[in-house]
Design goal:
By secondary structure, the protein is mostly helical. The chain has one domain. It is 62% helix and 4% strand. It has helices at 6-14, 33-39, 41-78, 84-137, 159-169, and strands at 28-31, 142-145. The protein starts with 5 loop residues before the first helix and ends in a 24-residue tail after the last helix.
Length: 193
């Protein structure tokens, strides 16, 4: 939301809410989605899964990179003793391996972006459900994402309480060892609320 709209929004927030008794003060809370991502059990699990996927893909890339480097080193070592045809053949092989490496890098990047999107979407859905339940349970008038406000009193930060509610509502699935290998089940990075 553009910053120039914020003063108008704040004025609206200070107006009485229809149906709210005049004597009831507004109860406002602020949460940090990044803290929820890092400290909820589901967020921790998604981070572990993401790390496992990234490590698996990086190991594949490293192996392919080592193959390319080994071919280059072999060509440098043997170049003086090889005929031109053999040198050209080795250069073509290096180019082919480099192309494979480039494709592997592109595929890995696409896979990680896909996994990130999937997990962010699932986490966001869980977060919204948790916020709604928490807000109703604790009678909050308004709960704001810390990322969209410039200042809040530390006393209205509800991140830790919301973590407890989130963990209560969303249990980490048991035994998902193969999950990191499936793009739809692998972990992602924090939501960008």
């Amino acid at each position: 939301m553009p910053r120039f709209l914020m003063p108008g929004l704040l004025v609206l927030l200070l107006l009485p809410i229809p149906g709210q008794a005049q004597s009831e003060p507004m109860k406002i809370g602020v949460f940090d989605p990044e803290i929820l991502w890092k400290q909820t059990e589901v967020g921790k699990k998604y981070n572990q899964d993401l790390s496992a996927s990234r490590d698996r893909l990086q190991a594949q890339i490293d192996r392919k990179q080592d193959d390319v480097e080994a071919l280059k080193a072999r060509l440098r070592q043997q170049q003086t003793s090889l005929n031109d045809d053999k040198i050209q053949e080795m250069k073509k092989e290096i180019i082919a391996k480099q192309t494979e490496l480039d494709r592997l890098n592109e595929d890995a990047t696409k896979e990680m972006k896909y996994q990130l999107g999937e997990v962010q979407s699932r986490f966001q859905e869980m977060l919204v459900k948790s916020l709604e339940a928490f807000g109703k349970e604790k009678a909050y008038t308004l709960v704001l994402n810390k990322g969209v406000i410039d200042y809040n009193s530390p006393g209205i930060d509800i991140s830790q309480d919301l973590i407890a509610k989130f963990n209560e509502m969303h249990k980490v699935p048991a035994a998902s060892a193969g999950a990191a290998k499936k793009p739809s089940d692998a972990a992602k990075e924090p939501p960008k609320n």
